[in-house]
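pasting input
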Amino acid sequence: MATTLTEHAPHADAHHHELSFVRKYIFSEDHKIIGIQFLFMSLFFLLVGGLLAAIMRWQLAYPTDPANPLPGGGLFPETMVNNGIILPEFYNSAVTMHGTIMIFFAIMPLLVGVFANYLIPLQIGAPDMAFPKLNMASFWTAFPAGLIMLAGFFVEGGHSSAGWTQYAPLSADPEWTGVYAGQQLWLISMIILGFASLMGAVNYITTVINMRAPGMTWFRIPLPTWALFITAILILLAIPVLTGALIMLLFDQTIGTTFFASATGGEPLLWQHMFWFFGHPEVYILILPGMGFVSEIIAAGSRKPIFGYAAMVLAIIAIAFIGWLVWGHHMFQSGMNPMLGMSFMVTTMIIAVPSAIKVFNWLGTMWRGDLHFHTPMLHAVTFVAMFVIGGLSGVFVASTPVDIFLHDTYFVVAHLHYVLFGGSLFAIFGAITFWYPKMFGRMMNSTLGKIHFWLTLIFFNLVFFPMHNLGIAGMMRRIYDFTQYEYLAPFQGLQMFISWSAFVLIGAQFIFAFNFLYSLFRGEKAPQNPWHANSLEWTAAPSPPPHGNFAHTPTVYRGPYEYSHPDAPGDYWPQNEPGPAAPAPEPVYAE
Amino acid sequence: MTTHAAALDRGGMDATEVGMGVYNMKLGMWVFLLSEVMFFTSLIGSYIILRAAHPDMFAQPGEVLNVPLTALNTFLLICSSVTMVLAFAAIERGDQAKLKAWLIGTALIGMSFLGVQVFEYIQLSGHGFVPSVEGYSAAGAPLYGTTFYTMTGFHGFHVFVGVLALWYLVIQAFRGKYTAANHGAVEITGLYWHFVDLVWIILFTIVYLI
Amino acid sequence: MGWLPEAASTFADSIDGIFYLILAITGVIFIAVEAVLLWFAVKYRHRDGRKAYHTHGNIRVEVVWTAVPAVLVVLIGVLSVRPWLHIRSPDSIPPDAYAIDMTAKQFEWNATYVGPDGAMGTDDDVTQRNQLHIPVGRPVVVMLRSEDVIHSFFLPEFRVKQDAVPGMEMAVWFQATRTGEFNLACAELCGTGHTRMGGRVIVHSADDFDAWLLAEGAGPPLGARLASSTDQP
């Protein structure tokens, strides 16, 4: 593999034109094309996940109300939507699949599949990944996994309806849900997707360790690559545990093993322990890359070095380590030993600290900066604002006594959406708008970008902030018809308000989709470095970079955040620009 | 670029410039094996948890499982690790004939291991020791069969993949692909093979002996 | 706007107390951080001639903003320990708690009260579906089981929630502070009918509860049972 790379690098352009269309765009080994393939795939799944959310929100706004049938409900078979009424089986499927698709087929591939592929080689000055063929295989494993997951909607009995967490024994025996093939397709798809993630992780880790350009020391690596590197380690170690659990569950479903069925000696809680042992590192897999993107965008948008680069890196590493010791906080009410619950509470409280450090460092980066509020910067700053809410609401459910009341209520739904939507998705929108010019050689429309941003910010908060209140009022999550409970019936007005805000929120995303597609063809031509950033993808490669990325392997002289340096000629100082030795790459804490 | 930069710029990647000093394939294999460690940890961990929770559902060592036969099989697999080391040592010296011989030896021992395991499965299932609730009649409870077949089965699958890789190496060796300077594939297959061997020693201890 | 449901158990004080404490701490942090963020966003927005100040950070402020959150979360953690153990530790269950068996299955709650013979698990026990009758001012211990999948026993007004896991028996204790009718819900997705797996909790005064037991043909009045409570689990 290494030899193939050296062949490519020096004569990248000559090689570029020899590839056929299929080799160049479909079965491509170029990390940039693979990243873009993941981008289109995961944006499609983002749409599917959003539509599933819309179906849920319709049911919650008008629970089993014949006067307000689901618009377009006739398109669904009667086993899902009958006379415009969403059936509980389908509602539970929609809940399950919204979670599954958003987490595994939208957010995770958007963060990792797209940006780890696209950014890592460019930011470290490598011509491609360490294993380009494995990289191609990774996408072409993830893609059929997605098709299998979608196929589950069309089989008899409907798609899996046991929740994205698939708690056994509900998920282990078709008898309990009435879902047969859908449940098995869910498991098979997830097992296959796990292989795709593993191939990616092996590639990212090897690439970052081995393929950095001369001078790219560990503490000169841009923060997105740092975050993606640590994320890859989490994926590498967490996914196999999930795969093991999924295989056991599939065996329980199909060949009659008894891992999780209590009637024959299995342990339902074993599933939860395995799932969350994977699941909590997964939570950080879903936020760390976003933190990396946001650090990059805020530094460039503020024209200032990132405040506390070393603290930022150490915080990522600390989160990744402590992240392995907190999985039990998802199970406080599961009947675990209360002493064990207490120790999980302590670790959970501790992991809040590195997150807080990151927030303060972003604020420190903005302090006395020269803030340019272009679309990516708006999204990045909003990430910080929303992540604060998601982080603080996490403290409530981390406290074991308070969690007794709030566990499995809408408070948790609000909390996780402030982190995953307010956090990860805003970071993704920021990252897409930031790196779009590099990917496609054109700028996204900034007016449309800002309209999309403001609508998303406002309606996101209108949707999810009131959910805290629903949770505090004791409304359970995953409830098909909350009006059946006397104490919850009065909230129908609020639910309707949330639903209509959600419809606007989903509608606003089409502005983004339009902007994305329109700019591909009509966007203003992008310069090589539109944001005047320092890292190698901007300073050493054209937009878009050719096959092989760099005409010559760049040499790195300094860290990636030397903005507004008094000795530099401009207000930024490219990593690969020779010059007087920059102030030590490791941050110097002057005064 | 300045002359300094030009001196550093070699027109391509120099993997060892800032890396680990290990070539990509080998590093990639080590990284992959870390994830394999987690996979087997999840299986073995589940076994330990289930057995600790339901000691009555598991038979005593030797009661159901054929320990002497499996001990022989364990010995076979350890031998195959030795032959793998010898294959690697041979090609490090550039001795292609010995490489071929030891690779074939390793692959054959690997296949014997699988053969013994299949024989063992047939024998056990004939006695009503099966992985599922249906048809289960051996000592203990279905949980025992469930965990036994899943753990040894996944290990066997890994051996099977290893055997395939070994035959691929044999074919390539006969084509003269490996030299003293270029034999990374032999080394990383060896890493994988030793790992699978090590996992078996742990599994044998936990599943058969304790 | 939704807020905590009316409180009806002795747990409500401590749980709600920590809730409000966390709300106060996080509320202050929330307002402070968002205010600073907005202030910076306005104050340092780009204007012609503005030059950003070049700094890589400051070790002293890093230490401060690591230590302060650490102290706060440890404080919250420490304050959570005592109520948690009071609610969950098996040692905290009062020995005189009145025991009720609760079996969950798709999609109903079956509460079983001890029969006149005073022993649980005999033929004269009385079982009622989706209703839980308890006395006020007396600790009650619900022995929770599930027949099929995981359910979650949720009494919002009592601040009680406990998963019912098949194969396990959980002792859930609490003490009602007022009479009246309250809600019983399932908080864990348990299948198609999850949404209708609700019920009512009826809290009686001590006398009414004895009368209700008598009317239903259930066990001896509570006063009598308390005397023989030593042979209860």
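fyi Residues 1-16, 584-591 of chain A have pLDDT under 50 and may be disordered.
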